[in-house]
Amino acid sequence: MFSVHASIRRGEGPAAARAGAIPACTPGSNIRWCIVTTIIGVDPSITSTGLVTWRNGRIFVATVATHPAAVMAQRHHDIAMRILTMAERNRANTLVVMEGRIKPGDDAVNTALDLAELRGVINHALHVQGIARVDVHPMTLKVFATGNGRALKSDMTVAARNRLGQHLHVTNDDEADAAFLLAMALHHYRLPLCTTTDKQAMAAERAPWPPFTLDVAQ
User: Is the model's pTM score more than 0.70?
Assistant: First the structure.
């Protein structure tokens, strides 16, 4: 567990927020702003899903591994429930940042279908719980992480350790991807975990970020 501290952006939003109320970030509610207390970077995978969570200035890194012999529906359920667990009691003020879909080649159709099913289960679970979600295209994520939209998995892991190592520790490429998804969100919301080039900063702004404000523990 690591800590990242900063001051909340006081003076933004209605006076109710400045007085201590925390508006919920309910998807589809035409919100103009709200306060986020938890951001979860999610790199979805049937076998090994990377999760990196920022909660009130603290960062938690985890991998959700499922057994290959388990029923697929159970594997989907276990991953989705772990994400909801990371949101804890702050689900109404949680933002999930997830790696988006890619167009598979013919040799990866079955894997892509399995991953699409998993994404559907995760998206449904988030919708039912009223948790906001942002999808980031894989190439955009790679540009933010390494400057190269065709970076390899190993490149992502090395970049995570070099650029984010002061704030978190990753053990595999799934956690590295999730870490940079979180870092992209924090960069946009003015609490960057690392320095960026102009190219990397532009990549971070390509995601459809909602008008949220971070709530950071003092």
Answer: yes
Distance separating alpha carbons of residues 76 and 164, to the nearest angstrom:
29
> Backbone phi, then psi, for 40, in 5-degree steps?
-120, 115
* Rg of the chain, C-alpha, whole Å: 17
**Beta strand extents in 6-84 (DSSP E only):** 34-36, 38-43, 48-55, 58-65
Instruction: Give residue 83's domain range.
Output: 2-214
Q: What angle do CA 113, 116, 122 make, to 5 degrees?
A: 150
Give pLDDT tens digits for 197-209: 999 999 999 999 9
* CATH number of the domain encompassing residue 105: 3.30.420.10
The two tokens of residue 94 are: 């949680």
Cα–Cα distance list, 190 to 71, 80, 104 (Å): 42, 28, 34
Q: How confident is the model at residue 215 (pLDDT cuts 50, 70, 90)?
A: confident
The backbone region for 31, taken as left when phi is positive above 0, alpha when psi lies in -120 to 50, beta otherwise, is beta
Q: DSSP characters for 121-161?
A: HHHHHHHHTT-EEEEE-HHHHHHHHHS-TT--HHHHHHHHH
Count of structural domains within the chain: 1
Rounded distance between C-alpha atoms, residue 97 and residue 43, angstroms:
9
Element (H, E) at 213: strand 212-214
Contact 86, 213 (CB under 8 A): no
